[in-house]
Design goal:
This protein is mainly α and about 80 residues long. About 60% of the residues lie in helices and about 10% in strands. It has one domain. The chain contains three helices and two strands; from the N terminus they run H-H-E-E-H. A two-stranded antiparallel sheet has the order 1-2. Helix 1 packs antiparallel against helix 2 and helix 1 packs parallel to helix 3.
């Protein structure tokens, strides 16, 4: 794996973790939907994420890990 690929995977992983924590705040009703969207937008800017659809696989130690779509999980929790 090249250094740039490792750095990119690390950046995507950090973004994914931040988004998961943000989704947990929303599902626990510690923030509202407007706050969630505002923070998610800032995270996307910070980590240079143009679209969550473009993030599919993260190579890690020769193993392919698929990111969880936390955004749809939040929507399911809100509809319950």
């Amino acid at each position: 794996m090249f250094v740039s690929e490792t750095m990119e995977a690390n950046t995507i992983l950090r973004y994914s973790l931040q988004l998961a924590m943000l989704s947990k705040l929303l599902s626990n009703e510690l923030i509202n939907r407007s706050e969630y969207e505002k923070i998610r937008s800032k995270l996307m800017e910070k980590y240079n994420v143009i679209s969550e659809i473009s993030i599919q696989l993260i190579p890690h130690c020769g193993v392919q890990s698929t990111m969880v779509n936390t955004h749809s999980e939040v929507q399911e929790n809100e509809n319950s």
